Amino acid sequence: MPHMPDDWRALTDFALTVEAIPVGDRLAQVESVDGAAQNGLFRAVSKEHVQLSGGDLYIISYPAIKPTGAIVEYQKQQWVFIAGNGARSTVFRLYYGDRTLKVGRERARAFNYLFSSFRFF
Questions:
Q1: Sign of CA dihedral 98, 101, 103, 109
Q2: 3-state secondary structure the chain
Q3: Residues 6+ apart with CB under 8 A from 106
Q4: Among 40, 66, 70, 117, which is 20 to 30 Å from 1 by CA?
Q5: Distance between CA 87 and CA 22 in Å, rounded?
């Protein structure tokens, strides 16, 4: 049985780390120029807020501004899921491109349902 968090992450499809950072601060980090926009590679086109039990969920869509090469194939679209409350939060980034479009959209729906089910105490 693995002992370290990195060992566990190698055995999973994705991992979330909940940190002692308020969701408002985490949202500000993601929305900063060097956050999800990655210094101009992506731009926010939609932002959804969902009130959760004891917390908040933000879902932000970022398409690539000028996608080229591998970005078109694998990272043309970025979805950022930010969930938390006044004490703790987690962030998950989902990327997909032309090659992974169908699976990417299915994953975006699945993560939307997953994060919408979170509860904070």
A1: positive
A2: CCCCHHHHHHCCCCCCCCECCCHHHHHHHHHCCCCCCCCCCECCCEEEEEEEECEEEEEEEEEECCCCHHHHHHCCEEEEEEEECCCCEEEEEEEECCCCHHHHHHHHHHHHHHHHCCECC
A3: none
A4: 117
A5: 5
Partners of 37 in the β-ladder: none
pTM of the model: 0.79
Q: From CA 33, how far away is CA 111, in angstroms rounded?
A: 24
Cα–Cα distance list, 26 to 41, 109, 112, 116 (Å) = 20, 22, 18, 17
